Amino acid sequence: MSGENSRKPCILIVEDEEQLARFVELELLHEGYSVTKCGNGRDALEEAERTQYDLILLDIMLPGLNGLEVLRRLGKERPTPVILLTARDSVMDKVAGLDAGAVDYVTKPFAIEELLARIRVALKLHPMETKADGAGSPAGARGAGPESPGQEGVLRWGPLTLDEPRRRVLMDGHEISLTNREFMMLKTLLENQDIVMTRETLLEKVCGYDYVGETNVIDVYIRYLRSKIDDVFDVKMIHTVRGVGYVIKAWEE
Ligand code: CA
Predict the structure, then answer these.
(1) Separation of CA 59 and ligand 1 centre (Å)
(2) Does the model's pTM come out above 0.90?
């Protein structure tokens, strides 16, 4: 976390349980992060508009505006990764939260080490620098036209193009809006065309190596991807290999 040029990552904690918020704040400060706290959803939205955070820890059960609503209002285009803090057994909240663009969730009560590990993974997978407009993409070509062939970070499957530097997926020129995890899932499958990917491998690629949870969350993302691509464009892109996992077969004309 130290180093002359490295800026402290800024984390926004949105949590109405003051003791818990304070505890997490102290741990994060100890780890070298810069921390701001909000006790309700409206303040959180204002704060997130005002300041570019590197990561938001967002409790779902908040007074007034709940966490899922905050997440929706932040919008899927928001580059800041969000980790949800959820109550045990609220599977629907987790699925809804991930679908709304959260990159991960941690179930309460959690061990602080687990939360810190999730934060490290999220910051690594979703660094704000590369998501800033123009930064990291060739010649800052924001909003430019179709990618040139063979461009680094661009994966193709017939009419579909996944452009990682610009974090875009196009099908026949139509942009497909994907959550971070759907994007990671599609990228992993496209990088491994004709290779069957097990749920465990996909889970590791999509959710991080230290993700603790059920592999059937992978089936949920596959369903979302199919509903956004296969169903809309009437193609059969993602194949199920029963008992094993999923594969995208190489495109054949
Ligand atoms: Ca709460």
Answers:
(1) 6
(2) no
Distance of CA 126 from the midpoint of ligand 1 (Å): 25
C-alpha 26 – ligand 1 centre gap (Å) = 18
Say whether 138-248 and 10-133 share the same fold.
no
Q: How far is the CA of 67 from the centre of ligand 1 (A)?
A: 9
Class of domain 10-133: alpha beta
Give the architecture (CATH level 2) of 138-248: Orthogonal Bundle (1.10)
- pLDDT means per 10 residues, the chain with 253 residues, are 65 95 94 94 90 93 90 80 84 82 89 92 79 37 40 87 90 87 92 90 80 79 92 90 91 80
Helices 180-191 and 199-207, packing angle to 10 deg: 130
d(CA 4, CA 180): 31
